[in-house]
């Protein structure tokens, strides 16, 4: 087994365990929790030692996600587990929307995307 085959198989395994994060809903959740706990954007900026408030606003708009280090500190500040700050696109890895309906457009698109990804990984490993 060549190096590329091992890497490709390793990537397939790790990718299948990854939960995709809904950055917009995560941003809304962060904003809601920050406001509920009585913090302002400026407070978060100072507590995380950010040079400007822009990253906090980008998190809240769902443009970017906080780093793991920032998530850790936010979880402590907001008194929740880090995992509770993130909103997954789907509850389980590989679970597509419309899981009960075989002809759901979202499910069909998910299956096509998965098939194309497998073909790409197979082609890249060859």
Any descriptors?
2 domains, 126 residues, 0% strand, single chain, mainly alpha, 434 Repressor (Amino-terminal Domain), disordered N terminus
Low-confidence stretches: 1-18
Tell me the structural class. mainly alpha
The top level CATH class name of the largest domain:
Mainly Alpha
Instruction: Provide the helix percentage.
Output: 55-70%
CATH superfamily of the largest domain: lambda repressor-like DNA-binding domains
Tell me, rounded to a whole number, the average pLDDT: 76
What would you say this structure looks like, in words?
By secondary structure, this protein is an all-alpha fold. It contains seven helices and no strands. The chain folds into two domains: 55 residues; 67 residues, 434 Repressor (Amino-terminal Domain). Helices cover 63% and strands 0% of the residues. The chain is elongated. 10% of the residues are buried.
